[in-house]
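SEQUENCE-TO-STRUCTURE ENTRY
===========================
Question of interest: how does this chain fold, as expressed in backbone structure tokens?
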Amino acid sequence: MNPGAQHPDDPASQPLRSDAERNRERIIAAARRVFARDGLNASMASVAREAGVGIATIFRRFPTKEELVAAVFADRMDSYADAVAVALDDPDPWHGFVGYIETACAMQAADYGFADVLTMTFPTAKAMEERRNEAYEGMVELIDRAKATGRLREDFDPSDLVLIHMANAGVINATGDAAPDAWRRVVALMIQSFEAPARGPLPASPEHAALYKAMLRASPAGPAAAEPDRSN
């Protein structure tokens, strides 16, 4: 063994790993600012400029945009799941349901990137998708409870939650700084339309597989990710 060689665990080797971690955190912080401002359509190059690093450095840390998105929004997805837990704890299921809709839509309004995240799916971001699925299952339970009270219309479908987030994201992205509170009126109108008694029948809800494909198509991986595997 070369006596002059450094062991990987020697203190002298630590600064390199510390620098790498600081670089990673700098990239995540920059991406959070860029995505919050410009949404997930922002390029990796714009994140690199914001972070003050080369694009190659970004891709060394995050080989795909999906991995960067997952790192940036892990805490937001935790907060989203927490909002569902709070709604489930409410003794009044209708109040909990309304509170969840308002909280989740406010989270979208506060961050353009997260507005997009709730309308997309990220198959390779396993931890983030698990949290999303946990939240979804909680909301299915809450929907059933709210229907049982007679306050939520019987034909409300869990897939309507995705449509709510898509509609809210569209309003947020369209109005921007010009009318930053416009989403509140739209959300209030939607909530009123959900309350029983229903004013009339609704068209059929989209098939869950079709809605998933739409969310996949909108993800950073693009339309190709939604295409079936034809390799076999």
